[in-house]
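Appendix B. Raw example, untouched.
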Amino acid sequence: MAPERTKFCNLCKQDLKPRGWTTHRKACEKKAEKQRQNQLVAESIRREDLEAEADHFADANVSERASTPGFRVDDIRCEYHPSSGIPPEVHAFEDFKRRPTPLASIPPNKHPWAPFKSRLEFELAELALEACLNNEQTDRLIRLCNRCTSRQEKFTFRTHKDIHDRWETASHRLTGFTQDMISVPYDGTIREFDLHYRNLWEWATDLLRDPQLFLHMTFVTFVDEPYTAEAFWNVQSQLPEGAKPLAFILYADKTKLSSFGTARGYPVVARLANLPTDIRNGQGMGGGYVVGWLPIVKDEKDHAGKPSWVNFKNAVWHEVFLKILSPLASKSSTGQWFECLDSIQRWFFPSILILSADYEEQCVMSLTRGIKSLWPCPVCLVPHDDLLDALKTYPRRTSDQSQNILQVARGKQTAEERDDTLKQYGLRDVQNAFWIVALTCVHYALSWDRLHFNGGLYRDHLWAELQRLITSLGRASVAQMDHNYEAFPWWRNLKHVSQVMSISFTDSSVYEDISKMVIYAAHTIVTEDECPIGYLLLRCIRLFLEVDLYAALEVHTADTICAGRHAVQAFSTYLQQYIAKTADTSDKNWNFPKLHMSVHIFDNIEAKGATRNYNTKPNEKMHGSLKDSYQMRTNFRNVAPQILRINHWQVVAESICRNISDFDEYQSRDADNVLDEDNFVVDDLVVSNDSPHVKLGSRQAPQTFESVENTHGHDSAFTNFRIKLNEFLTNFLLAIQVPLPGGKRVQLKANDKITECRFLKVNYESLVDWRQHTDFLRCNPKFFGAPRFDCVFVQTTDKIIFGRLLFVFECTLEDTALSLALIHPFDAPTGVRIRKDKHLSIFRVRARPRAQAEFFSVRSIIRGAFLVPDGSNDYLVVDTVDTDMFLRVKALHLEAGHLVRV
């Protein structure tokens, strides 16, 4: 091959290829001309400076002129402050540097990565810092590096592209996303929108093929799971003999992808109702899956607000959902045979059992006209003006009815007549996508949403009204309310809120925690005498909390459903009284659909199981990972494919992780040292020898009885600590039929030692679902800088009492280790029950004198209790912290003969 010809540019001194020579030459000439012009300007400035300097030196005295060195053109003279003692210096232009010359005589640091032991360790730590890895992720990274250095496994990755390609290969293990386009006409034009979705049937078969999930699936009374409730039963009753329902739960809602930007996403999440809730609402395989990404129709100023434009946006939504639901359409009518992992062929009929959404989204799903229509409820035909009344029931909407009404409306001659017909039922002139799926009624599938019920009713109405009324009582009342919240004891999974009266907008979970404590913070401020209207509102809030707690129960019986319906009616009655009495002083609008939806709470529970089956909370929780993918893994343009690719990789990664876990378990099945699944460590957690449901941790150094009594000498509860313990142990050992040491009464000595434990893990059986739950309790004089001594339910020989943990310890008698607790009992008589306690369903207890503290075996502790002080000796049991606490305190009310007057 002949050598390639080049041309030499004498301006930039480079050899160039002939191609592009003309363009390059013109650019070089232009640059040279610009440099020449700059040089001329610079020479002119220098000449002016030299002439001015010559005039200056001509005026100076001769001796100074003689001592001044000669200058050349472009020399730079540096003059220093007189206090520096440095004489003026003259530098040639080409030698002048603003920065100091490095001292070559100082050798560089031979270990610049110190105190890290190597450059590799520093760069690894820097990467963890830059990527904001948490402790667990950093530990995983270090373990991976150690595995790489051991060379026992192959590591072939070289760049990020290798990882990307491997994920793409693995993506075919599970049903991925398909991109499609839908077209919807509007105003004489065809509008096109992108859609991303998974095939719902293929996604469901992925779960049916999973060996760990299949064991938990139910294809077939306590009401908890969807497959134990009426709707599942009704679907099963409509199927041919031998057929099995495959029930889907769908969720859709828009979300902001950025806190500060305008980017939004519209995910669709699917769950399989045949799986139990702890799997279905959990994370990982069997939990929620993003199965679609809907287009968001941007408002156009020319059309925004027009009824036709609103109908168009709804038509786009249902056209997109038609594409998502299409894989189920024919199968829902004829069924689909599928061979399951047990090698049995099953005849499945898919249906949409539950639609989980907030009110606005429910209106889109059902194609109702929303809050301003004549019939705003998407579930029933309640008139707009009767939304407040929860004592009445109205006819339910059905899909068949809506189809017939739309058919009649479209038979009208004019658009105005068609719209008038649909208005009479609050419907839109759009074909509903859910009608293509047999065994599905969209209005029946829509469900009451606890998350937005609390947000819309409590946050925006009840709490806002209470804030207004307390503010009207003056600054002292506002300050007292803030103080009461800040003074509450700490409790696990309950946010400790400060400045609560200043909160106007925050996360819904914060408002939920505020509501749990509001009665106990406000009852001394909003009293019946000083603020009767506020007191009535407080009674309304108490009834609202009871409705919410009954609705939150994980398992229902006929009794709890009946009690819940009664609570709804009582709440509605008292709220109407409050609204009537504040009609002239408050501008709050109480006639809104989210309040009315409480009428359907227990109908939904009977039909579809506990409310956690259709709560939007676990679905909205999934928005977090989508937002993270948007922020960290996209280029902020055409983000849907990028976000969904990462989402699919995460699903595939979870599947592979579970396969690896199964493999490891199989490999170690015969190993001798199999860890107990409960054997996680909090400090030095150990199982109590005499109480398998309690584990003790945070053990301190052993100390003598003399030391304990001296340390707590100021506390009357510890007076004669050793003597009282001897008496207790003697009686306790006799009661549990354990021989006394040496056949004599217990006589511990002052120099005998015990071990203090400042942490308790208490396992208890919940009264709600009869499963094991756990409380983490503290008995610590300095927990995160403050004393924390939790309260507990204690089982005595004849009844259940409350008490505060004062000292938890282990004591050894011969070869027997006993776990004991010194508890301050709260079982003193409280006298006649006061009126306020009756109205607000408060369970009040009273402390005995502290000197009457008693010893108990930790086996007597049932679970933790959340108590707040009310005066010097009285305490109020907060029964709103969880559903088990609510039922336990209800039982104590009945045992004490308390009547809750509602």
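End of appendix B.
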